[in-house]
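dude i think i finally got it to work??
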Amino acid sequence: MAPMYANGYMYIFEQENILNPFQANIAFYRRFIDVIIMIWNGTPDSIRQMLETINQLDTPVQLTMTMDPYTADLLDIRLYKENNTIAYTLFSKPTDRNTLLHATSHHPRHLINSLPYSQFLR
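look at this
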């Protein structure tokens, strides 16, 4: 149920505070629940100003930004430009300790049983 509420909240937030006021400078925009990837056509100063404006709002949403013209890390993938196309590879956050749940953990059995499969997919 929580992802549904988060999606609804973020939809309204992005319409009112990101897309409508800054649409002219947004070349590409996608969101997965509360993770946003955006390609900005404006100047570096204008995107910093947008970020500052949004983060000064009285909301629980605080945006962070990584400005890199060649790569973007999003969830567990790294997007990068290669031969004029967008390619991707696996990305692990620097804080990732590569730890898994122990089989005797008190988590639901279906979750523990699905770990090998989900890790294999990565």
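The longest strand covers residues 26-32.
im so relieved honestly
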